[in-house]
Structures are given as structure tokens and as C-alpha cells.
Specification:
The complex is a heterodimer.
Chain A: H1 3-28, H2 33-53, H3 56-73, H4 81-104, H5 113-123, H6 142-156, H7 162-179, H8 199-210, H9 216-225, H10 232-257, H11 265-286, E1 287-289, H12 291-294, H13 297-308, E2 312-317, E3 322-324, H14 325-346, H15 350-355, E4 362-371, E5 374-381, H16 388-397, H17 403-408, H18 411-415, H19 439-448, E6 452-458, E7 462-470, E8 475-483, E9 486-491, E10 495-502, E11 509-512, E12 515-520, E13 523-529, H20 530-533, E14 545-553, E15 556-562, E16 564-572, E17 586-591, E18 597-601, H21 603-610, H22 624-635, E19 637-644, E20 650-654, E21 660-665, E22 670-672, E23 675-680, E24 683-689, E25 701-709, E26 712-717, E27 720-728, E28 731-734, E29 740-746, E30 749-754, H23 756-767, H24 769-776, E31 783-788, H25 792-804, E32 807-812, H26 815-823, E33 830-834, H27 842-851, E34 860-864, H28 869-878, E35 882-885, H29 889-902
Parallel strand pairs in A: 2-4, 9-18, 13-15, 20-30, 24-26, 31-32, 31-33, 33-34, 34-35
Antiparallel strand pairs in A: 1-3, 4-5, 5-7, 6-7, 8-9, 8-16, 10-14, 11-12, 12-13, 14-15, 17-18, 19-20, 19-27, 21-25, 22-23, 23-24, 25-26, 28-29, 29-30
Helix pairs in contact in A: 1-2, 1-4, 1-7, 2-3, 3-4, 3-5, 4-5, 4-6, 6-7, 10-11, 13-14, 14-19, 23-25
Chain B: H1 11-15, E1 20-28, E2 31-36, E3 40-44, E4 59-65, E5 68-74, H2 75-78, E6 91-97, E7 100-106, E8 108-116, E9 120-121, H3 129-134, E10 135-141, E11 144-149, H4 151-154
The chains are: A alpha+beta, B mainly beta.
């Protein structure tokens, strides 16, 4: 038998058994949209698949049934027992055709006109014909159906006799058993009753009408005998046992290794081989090449191209990429849907393509590959791209968004609407697609297995769907590295090369402002120290040699500094415990050959953490969602004042911090306590220099940046003011040098970003130190404020502002760190938190704060660049006391004062 | 005090009455704790534990228990007790929660006790809020009190920790 056909038969009979049960459930809960959606999808899938296999009779029946179900779904039609009976009849009809198909590989003669017209009448809202009895070619069990209808009617009017209910359940099971070779324990909610005694009656009924079904059962079991279904859990257990066996074997080998003439050597050798084979075998039971899921695509595309009169070239790359069987099963249908969509909606007809200057033959490319512990499947077409206008119109029509909302969205965001349920932009409903049951199914199926789906489209050029599925159960080759005496696994797939560095070799680690880099073949490779990144602590002395694991994530390449590199090992990725899932650095953990547990590093997580606060990493970030959040930051332009001071390097400070630009006559500089000051607007203003060793010229005029806060001012003496530039602030290189935030590219030039806070505190520390005491009393009374913001820019902007306003500020870059402070016993009078942060968002942070007694009473102020009413409401719900826009410094200070006053000011 | 301590060996006598429950007992410092015996999968001696960087401080690390990865929780830290003086080998009780195995590190594991319901009391309101969170109640025993650990809450890091 044709592979495609036999697969279809197995699959469809599985779907049908589920359908029977679901339909009965639906009748009992006619208003449950979940059940309805499920039924609709199942029927849709059957219809879709048989359409491509060239089974017109089956297709038309399924199409008619789907029509009725569609009306149910849209609430145009009430779910009545009669209607459900009709659907059940059509399912029985499908079963009959299927059994015939299995025996003869062709559809039986007949057109099911009566059933179809009954269904269509139903769909059109006409009262169904009263005849319960089916026509000759209709395979329904008239007796059973009538009985069922009776029971159902009884149920509907509330006569809930236990026996009747039981009967209904039994009927459903009978039907499920009849059409199917095996039962689906997961799907069957009822306890299976022995059907043997109930079966003859029903089977007899069927025989009387159709004549052939008794033969169906043995046939189907013959088909099923080729494969057996094994519970995944069983395989999992086997896998665990084999891992144990491998460990024991390794231990034995270790024992024998020292003794050359051991009598155990030979048997152990054999044991070793067998264990290895067994391990491979068990692993193989779970792994399958993705090509298996693609096998039926060429045929589907071919049929489609004939039907739609299009020329389509389907290319499949990476069919040998292995993935977990379970995962494979789950993505099969979504993939089929998507390829069909690309071919149907994406690609234009030859005429249109010619006009657009493209080759007549449209291309659909499927590409699968492993990337950093994930499997990426790309479906690309070179068609017309997604119609933004149509999606917008449809979104408005469906009430998903208003026109005003849509105007604010980017095209990429608008494309995401196609993943909503009931969304289809196809103008006419064809038998191929266009019922709005495609992309939402695709997405829900992919998300079910923890995957993500991304969509890129450009008008006239085509669309690309990128599915990313985690490899939680897959076996990967990993490089074992050591850092601070801890071993870690790095997925081999993301490792480009290894570099050994010693202090004297040509590959030596160099430092730019404490940021390690490595010269590698005329390129500068940014490095991250695993020790620092993972807070491993321990000895930090200069080692004779270190190793750099050159790692690639997307298009971003960086090096991880580790102490030692061991071998590569094949490891079984196991997910980490739920309480550790928030640590993005690890993609899982595994057990090594020697029995020890080690963590598997996630290069994606490391890359994003290593560049945290660096908006440039948005490019490295794979997920659209993170990218969207980061874009928010990236789009925030900051006015920067660019100047030179001390050296020829360009320096910059946020203009928001600078009160005025002044020129001071150097002759007017006086000294107080040895520090230079000038009289400025009736006050003494301290002057500070970028570089304290930098001497003042004797005379002439020099530009000064005046930083002011209330009545206090401070002047930063600079050499030359270059420009005021509005640019996105991207700190490319972070440094630990006091006084500098880091280096950023501003107006195309590398510019040091000055930490104004440092100079402010220097001036106030030196100069206003005595005033602190008078204005704030003793330091104990100073309000302690915790500032949580992932952006170094805002931390550095706000910390000095708060500090000069008399608050004792502690700034951290993530909610996790803030919570760590709490665990360490720190107490604050007030917490200011950003909302959009990687890791825990501000909302989640607030929830965490409110859920625990320690900081429960501490007032929380949210800080965000986008304060909508919705955000405000959500903020208050999770426990924020107030909400301030990020750029409004005065409002922030005012809010802080008010909030503190309101909370009673308890320290 | 009128209740009796029933050693595990005599359990069959007690099993008939529904008024008793069996607990695996364990000590941290001098405090006696109990976990319902049916939730306990294993009792382990000192194990080689791989520490997990960046994990919450209460997570001691992970260990390999017959091919399954078990997350080890330092109950002492979880209960905010001070560090143990001296690095004596500690014992662990392995429990399962949501399909995952966790080992609870304690100072020592004692015998299994059948405790009568009559000796059970709710948490006294004066108990430290943190302990109140993790304690499912108290048993009055002769000469000592047993705190019943609520394993689900003990392992629920989302309430107090980052999700």
C-alpha cells in the first residue's frame, strides 16, 4: 500500500476515535468552545488530508460536516442532539469509506448525497429531514443512532437516569472501538468497559446495512501489527536504566584498566560493546530524522500545484536532522499546514510572478538544522509576502484591535495577528485552506512543546516562518570545560573553535578598560569570563594558560574564558528542575560518564547576559519577543553632549544632566580648602576635572559643564565642547573604571560615556560633605532607596539625581539581584523599579516583593518609559504604589517624597 | 502528655486505626522535623553534589540518584538557620514533587514514627512567619515537639524567590 495512504488511514482512524468521544462530550457541554475547536480541527485535518490524497467522496462528506461544525463554532447554529447525530453519521460514513479504502485502496462507489444534503440543510439552518434511517450507501447504524438520539433526547430534557447515561457512554465507546484498531488511553476519559458483549449487537446493525465492516477489524489490526506503540515513559525509563548501565560499565573498565592480564578483560570488552549498542538502540527509538515528517509534502505540493495551476518547486534541506519522535509527531501537522499555506497563499500564479519579474516557478524551501540546543525549521517562500492591509482590515473586523492601535504597530507586529484563532485572510473559503484554522493550530502545537514561531515577511519578496523547538530530550554532543573546579557542558554545535592562550604566546588576552578581548586572525573577539559570569568566585590569579571557547550565537561570536577543556561527550539533555528554570545560563543538565551531574551552558543565555544592557545584542537575540522589548530601549534616543577633556578622546554625558554650559574666566577661580571654586550666580560652585592630575591653565577662558540640583551646582571643567548629538545610546563596552559608564558609538565615533554621578558625588562628597550633616541630620535618617533597572544608562542617570536629593541609593541591574539583596537581609525605605527588564519583569518583581513578608511594607514605585492606563492599573494590581515616567526627574523626586510621607516614613 | 511514641516496628498494630500517621523524622540542629512517610522516596547519606551557579542560595546543587538528577535543597538555609558548625556529613531525604526529585539536606534522619492525630496541633501564631509558611503543624511528643514540614511549600520557590 502507498505509504502516504497507510499513514493517512492510521492517523485518521485515530482522529475518528477521538472525535466520537469529543462529540458526545460536546453534546453534554454544548457551550464549551474548547471541545468544539478540537472537533473542528480534527475534521478539518481529515478533510484537508484527503483532499490531497485524491479522495473526493471522503472529502465532500468531511467538508459538509465541517460546514456544520463551523456554524457551531461561530454560534450561528445551536448544538442539538439531532445535529450531533448528523455529524456522528457522517463520521460513520467516513469510517466505512476508510475501511473500504484499506481493503481496496480506492473509495467505494456512491456519493452520500442524502447525508450531505442533510448536513447542508443543517448548515443552512433548515430543519433536518426527519428520516433517521440512512440511505443504502449510508453506513450509519440506524438502530444505534436512533437509540442514541433517544438517550440524548432524554438527557436533554433532564431525565438523567444513571442507566441511560451509562448507555450513552457505552455507545460512545462502542463506536470508538468499532472504527479503530486501538484505543487511546490518554484520550479516553471514561473507564473502558468490556465491549465484547456489547459489540455483536452494534456490529450486527452495521452488517445489516453496509455488509462489509466485520472484515474491517482484522484488517486494521493487521496494519497495526507492523508497528507497536510504546509509551514514551517506558522508553524514558529504559533510557535511564541504560545510562546507569553505562556508568557501571565505565566503573568496571576503570577497575580493570590497571591490570593487563585480568581475566575480566575479555568479557568486559563484550559487555562494553553490547552496552554501547544498547545505548544507541534505545536512543534511536526516540530519534527520527525530520525527513519522516516531510515525506508526504512533495505529493501534497504537487497536487496543489496542479489544482491551483501554479508552478511550485519544493526544496528540502536538512531532512536527516534528527529530532525526538514525540516532538516530530507534534510538528508534523503544523509543518504540513504551513507548507500548504506557503504554496496556497504565499506563492502567486505564474502570470502574476512574471509580471513581478520573478521566475514562473515559485519556491518553497524547508530547512532544518540544529542550533544551540534547538532545532530550527525554516519555511521560506519567494511569494508575495503577507498582505499587511488585509490583516489590518481583518483584525479590525474581528475586533482584535482598533484602527488606532494598529497604526502604532509595526508591520512585524501586525503579521502576528495571523496566529490568532479564527483568522484567515483568504477571501474565499477553499477546500485547501482559509477557514482560520491554520496558523493558530500551528502556533498552539508548537508552543505545546515549548517551541517558538517567528515570522518574517517582506512585500513582494516572500515570507519566512522560523520554528524553534527545544531539544529537551535529544542527545547532543557537548564539550566539557572546567572553570573554578566546576565542570560545564557547552553544546558542541555552538562551539566554533578552541584557542589556548598563555601570557607569552601570540594569543594573549588583552584588556580594554577591563573588558577582555582577544586578537584572533585580525579580528577582535570579545571575551566573557565564565568565572565572573557565573559568580564562581575562587582563585582569580593569573593562570599560566587559559582556554577560550569561541562560541557563535546567531551572528554574534564571542569567546568564553575557561580554565580547562576536556573531551567532547555525547550527553542526554535533561531539563533543569523548575526552581532553576529562571537561570537563563543553563539549557539543561546531564549526567556524565563518571556519574557526576553537570550543568549545560546555554550560549544564547550567556550571550544575552554578557551583553546585558547592550542594545546591540538585540541582533543576537533570537526571539521576537525579547527583540521587541529591547527595541523599545533601542528606540529611545538620548541627547548627548559630546566634549573633549583631559585627552583627545571624545567624551559624552547625557544632556539631561547638564544644567548649563558656561565659560569661566580662569582668573576668577579661587580656592577653598585647596579645591578650585568659582563664584557663580551668588553661590560658590566647586569645579572638578575629569583627570585630577590635569592642571588648570593660568589664564584664558575655559568651558564648564554646570550640573545643578536645587541650589547646589557643580562645574565640570572641559577642554572643548564638540557637539550635542541625539542618538541611541548603546554602551558597547562596559568598564569598571570609576567615572566612566563605558564606551558607545555616538554619531559614528567611539565616545566614552561619562558617569556624571561619579563626579557629582565627588564634588558633593568633598564639598558638600559638611552640608549633608546639617541638611539631613545624621546619616541614619537618610532614606534608603533601591533602584532596579536593567539599563546602565538609567541607573547612572538616576542614581546621582537621587543621591543629591538626599537618598542613599543602591542600584542593581535586575530583579533577581534585588531579591538577592532582600535575602541578604537588606532593608530599604523605598524601591524604584523598571518595568521592562530581562528576566523578572517589574510586575513579577513587585509580586515577588509583595508575596514575602520582609519587604511587604516597603513602598514600590514603578518607572517606565511607556506609562499607559493599562500599565498603571496592572502596576497597582501587583503592588506598585505609584508610577512615574522615566524621563521626568522632578516628578520622580516629588513622587518619592509623597510616597515616603504616605508610608509614614518608617525606617 | 498521654500520647505514646510508636516505633516503626510496631506499626502494624497501629495501622488499623486511621487516627495515626507515619512520619519520617529528621533533625536539624536540635529541632525534630517530620515528613509523611509516603512522600519520601529515599534516604541518602552524604553525596557528591554539583553546585549550581546563580541558583538561589537554598539550592545546594544537584546529584545523580540512579540516573535521575535530583535537586538538593539545603533545608537549613531554607529555614534561615545559621550555617552548621563543622562540615559533618549530612543526610538527605528524597521527595518527589511534580515529577521532579528533590533531596532535602538535613543533619540526620531518624526513625519512622506513627503519630496519633490527638497529638497534632496547628502552628502556634507566635511561630516565625517563615516557619509558619513551611510548617504544616506541630506534634506534641514526649519531651520534644515535631514540626511537620510542608514539602510543597518548602519547594515552592516562586512565592519567595524569582520564578
Amino acid at each position: 500500500m502507498d505509504d502516504l495512504l497507510s499513514e493517512f488511514l492510521t492517523e485518521t482512524s485515530e482522529s475518528l476515535s477521538v472525535l466520537d468521544i469529543e462529540l458526545v462530550k460536546l453534546e453534554q457541554n454544548p457551550n464549551d468552545p474548547g471541545i468544539l475547536q478540537n472537533i473542528f480541527r480534527l475534521v478539518h485535518t481529515i478533510k484537508g488530508t484527503c483532499g490531497f490524497l485524491g479522495l473526493p467522496r471522503l472529502e465532500t462528506v468531511a467538508h459538509a460536516a465541517e460546514n456544520v461544525l463551523g456554524k457551531f463554532r461561530d454560534r450561528e447554529l445551536e448544538v442539538t442532539p439531532e445535529a450531533v447525530t448528523r455529524i456522528l453519521q457522517s463520521i460513520d460514513c467516513i469510517k466505512l469509506i476508510l475501511s473500504h479504502l484499506e481493503q481496496h485502496e480506492v473509495e467505494p462507489e456512491g456519493d452520500d448525497a442524502e447525508l450531505k444534503s442533510a448536513l447542508n440543510d443543517l448548515a443552512d439552518g433548515k430543519t433536518p429531514a426527519t428520516t433517521q434511517a440512512a440511505s443504502a450507501e449510508e453506513p450509519a447504524f440506524p438502530v444505534a443512532a436512533e437509540l442514541l438520539a433517544e438517550v440524548e433526547a432524554a438527557l436533554a430534557v433532564g431525565k438523567r437516569a444513571a442507566t441511560e447515561a451509562d448507555l450513552a457512554a457505552e455507545m460512545a465507546l462502542e463506536r470508538a472501538r468499532q472504527g479503530d484498531d486501538e484505543d487511546e488511553p490518554a484520550e479516553t476519559s471514561r473507564t473502558p468497559v468490556p465491549v465484547a458483549n456489547a459489540l455483536p449487537a452494534a456490529a450486527g446493525g452495521t452488517t445489516a446495512v453496509s455488509g462489509s465492516p466485520p472484515a474491517a477489524e482484522p484488517k486494521e489490526s493487521a496494519l497495526a501489527a507492523q508497528t507497536i506503540r510504546v509509551n514514551v515513559e517506558l522508553l524514558e525509563n529504559l533510557m535511564t536504566l541504560v545510562s546507569e548501565l553505562v556508568l557501571t560499565r565505565n566503573q568496571l573498565l576503570q577497575m580493570v584498566r590497571g591490570k593487563d592480564d585480568s581475566e575480566f578483560a575479555t568479557p568486559l570488552q563484550r559487555l562494553s560493546h553490547i552496552t554501547t549498542d544498547l545505548q544507541e538502540g534505545v536512543m534511536k527509538t526516540r530519534m527520527q530524522p525530520i525527513g519522516n515528517a516531510w515525506a508526504k509534502l512533495p505529493r501534497i505540493v504537487r497536487d496543489l500545484s496542479v489544482e491551483m495551476n501554479k508552478k511550485i518547486d519544493l526544496q528540502m534541506v536538512g531532512a536527516e536532522t534528527e529530532l525526538d519522535r514525540q516532538v516530530l509527531e507534534l510538528i508534523k501537522d503544523p509543518l504540513t499546514h504551513m507548507v500548504r499555506n506557503s504554496a496556497d497563499h504565499g506563492l502567486e500564479g505564474p502570470e502574476e510572478r512574471r509580471r513581478a519579474g520573478k521566475p514562473e516557478t515559485g519556491k518553497v524551501v524547508l530547512n532544518a538544522y540544529h542550533e544551540g540546543g534547538h532545532i530550527i525549521i525554516e519555511i521560506t517562500d519567494d511569494g508575495r509576502g503577507l498582505p499587511v492591509g488585509k490583516i489590518k482590515a481583518k483584525a479590525i473586523a474581528n475586533g482584535l484591535a482598533t484602527e488606532a492601535e494598529l497604526d502604532q504597530l509595526t508591520d512585524q507586529q501586525i503579521y502576528q495577528f495571523i496566529f490568532k484563532a479564527g483568522f484567515s485572510t483568504a477571501e474565499k473559503i477553499t477546500s485547501i485552506s482559509g477557514r482560520g484554522v491554520g496558523m493558530d493550530v500551528v502556533r498552539s502545537n508548537i508552543e505545546k512543546i515549548g517551541g517558538t514561531i517567528e515570522l518574517k515577511s517582506s512585500p513582494g519578496k516572500g515570507s519566512t516562518f522560523i520554528i524553534k523547538i527545544p531539544l529537551t530530550l535529544a542527545i547532543v554532543s557537548a564539550l566539557i570545560v572546567e572553570c573554578a573546579n566546576e565542570r560545564f557542558a557547552v553544546p558542541q554545535i555552538s562551539v566554533l573553535e578552541l584557542v589556548r592562550t598563555t601570557a607569552s604566546s601570540e594569543h594573549a588576552i588583552e584588556m580594554i578598560n577591563n573588558a577582555p578581548v582577544l586578537r584572533l586572525r585580525d579580528r577582535l573577539l570579545p571575551l566573557v569570563g565564565l568565572r565572573q559570569l557565573l559568580h564562581l568566585g575562587g582563585e582569580n590569579d593569573e593562570r599560566d594558560e587559559t582556554f577560550i571557547v569561541v562560541t557563535q550565537v546567531g551572528t554574534y561570536t564571542f569567546g568564553m574564558i575557561v580554565d580547562r577543556v576536556f573531551d567532547t561527550e555525547e550527553i542526554v539533555v535533561k531539563p533543569v528542575a523548575p526552581i532553576l528554570r529562571h537561570i537563563t545560563m543553563f539549557s539543561g543538565n546531564t549526567i556524565l560518564g563518571d556519574g557526576s551531574v553537570i550543568m549545560i551552558l546555554d550560549p544564547n543565555g550567556i550571550a544575552s547576559l554578557a551583553t546585558a544592557g547592550d542594545t546591540a545584542s538585540a541582533a543576537a537575540s533570537q526571539s521576537t519577543e525579547t527583540a521587541a522589548v529591547r527595541d523599545v530601549h533601542a528606540d529611545e534616543k538620548n541627547s548627548m553632549l559630546v566634549f573633549r577633556a583631559g585627552s583627545d578622546d571624545l567624551k559624552a554625558v547625557p544632556l539631561a544632566l547638564v544644567a548649563r554650559l558656561e565659560e569661566v574666566d580662569l582668573a576668577s577661580i579661587e580656592h577653598s580648602h585647596g579645591s578650585p571654586v568659582v563664584q557663580y550666580r551668588g553661590h560658590l560652585m566647586p569645579l572638578v576635572f575629569i583627570d585630577s592630575s590635569y592642571g588648570l591653565k593660568a589664564e584664558g577662558r575655559q568651558p564648564v559643564l554646570v550640573f545643578a540640583d536645587r541650589h547646589r551646582t557643580m562645574g565640570l571643567v572641559v577642554d572643548e565642547i564638540v557637539d550635542i548629538v541625539e542618538d541611541r545610546l548603546k554602551v558597547e563596552l562596559a568598564v569598571n573604571q570609576p567615572g566612566l559608564i563605558g564606551t558607545a558609538v555616538i554619531a559614528g565615533k567611539a565616545t566614552d560615556i561619562l558617569d556624571a554621578g561619579y563626579y557629582l558625588s565627588q564634588a558633593y562628597g568633598d564639598w558638600f560633605g559638611s552640608m549633608d550633616e546639617t541638611s539631613f541630620g545624621d546619616a541614619e535618617a537618610q532614606r534608603r532607596v533601591l533602584l532596579v533597572d536593567d539599563s546602565p544608562f538609567f541607573r547612572n542617570l538616576l542614581s546621582p539625581v537621587l543621591a543629591v536629593a538626599g537618598y542613599d541609593v543602591t542600584a542593581v541591574d535586575s530583579a533577581d539581584k534585588a531579591l538577592a539583596l532582600r535575602d541578604a537581609g537588606s532593608r530599604f525605605d523605598l524601591i524604584i523599579s523598571d518595568i521592562e527588564m530581562p528576566g523578572l519583569s517589574g510586575f513579577e518583581f513587585a509580586e515577588a516583593v509583595r508575596a514575602d513578608t520582609r519587604w511587604q511594607a516597603t513602598p514600590l514605585v514603578a518607572l517606565s518609559s511607556h506609562a499607559t492606563d493599562h500599565d498603571l492599573a496592572r502596576g497597582r494590581e501587583v503592588g506598585f504604589n505609584d508610577y512615574v515616567a522615566k524621563f521626568d526627574r522632578d516628578a520622580l523626586l516629588q513622587t518619592l517624597a509623597q510616597t515616603l510621607a504616605a508610608s509614614g516614613g518608617a525606617a | 502528655m498521654n500520647q505514646s511514641l510508636v516505633p516503626a516496628g510496631n506499626r502494624h498494630v497501629q495501622e488499623a486505626s486511621a487516627a495515626t500517621q507515619d512520619y519520617v523524622t529528621m533533625y536539624i540542629e536540635d529541632q525534630l522535623f517530620g515528613i509523611p512517610v509516603l512522600t519520601v522516596q529515599d534516604v541518602l547519606g552524604a553525596q557528591k553534589i554539583t553546585r549550581i551557579p546563580l541558583a538561589p542560595p537554598e539550592v545546594a546543587g544537584s546529584l545523580n540518584l540512579r540516573g535521575r538528577i535530583v535537586t538538593s535543597i539545603d533545608v537549613r538555609k531554607r529555614l534561615r538557620l545559621k550555617e552548621r558548625a563543622g562540615a559533618a556529613a549530612s543526610m538527605s531525604v528524597v521527595v518527589e514533587l511534580g515529577g521532579e526529585l528533590y533531596s532535602l539536606m538535613v543533619d540526620s534522619v531518624g526513625e519512622v514514627l506513627s503519630l496519633p492525630a490527638a497529638a497534632f496541633e496547628r502552628n502556634p501564631p507566635t511561630l516565625d512567619p517563615l516557619w509558619r509558611e513551611f510548617s504544616a503543624g506541630i506534634y506534641r511528643l514526649q519531651g520534644t515537639l515535631l514540626v511537620v514540614l510542608d514539602v510543597t511549600r518548602l519547594l515552592d520557590f516562586t512565592r519567595t524567590e524569582a520564578a
